[in-house]
Design brief:
There is one protein chain. By secondary structure, the chain is an all-alpha fold. It has a domain of 132 residues: Tetracycline Repressor, domain 2 (Orthogonal Bundle).
Amino acid sequence: MMATPQVRRGDTRQRIQEVALELFAEQGYEKTSLREIAEHLDVTKAALYYHFKTKEDILISVAKDLAGPVDDLIAWAATQPRTLATKREILRRYSDALWGAANFFRFMQENQATVRELSIGETFKSKIAALNGLLREPGFSMTDQVRCTAALFSMHAGMFAMQNIEGDPEEKRAAILEVAQGLITEAHRDQTETP
């Protein structure tokens, strides 16, 4: 007789997060209920409550899980020399983190007003500010500071803008990274050419 595989608690938690993010992105955070999440999972609301008491609890758990790679990147970057090569590597690693959390960033894009009201909004904003600070230099002109900030945001915007363009996903990702790294390279070029 074959044993029925048991679903581990971590698997159920992860499945709840995935389904909730899909529904939040499709319907909106405010329009999605815990009941709907439970129905999509084919579990009772009580079973869902065992893992998460509120929709915000689900989002906070997702944000914490996905923040790990960004936190690791910030810690790594803070120990590196502030060179163009380091900054290009920061963007490459950030690209990996973004694409690894595409559903979460899709949710954030589709629910910007809600994100601003939730605690994850401030957390995300502080991480972007930290990354931006690692890309900019005090002596950069205003134009070059904008280039550094635009490099990060071009990666966010590119993820969503490229969804409707035909092509290989990896090719799109590489193109977005190339644009972002080009902005950083241009900022550094301006600094080395300044008399």
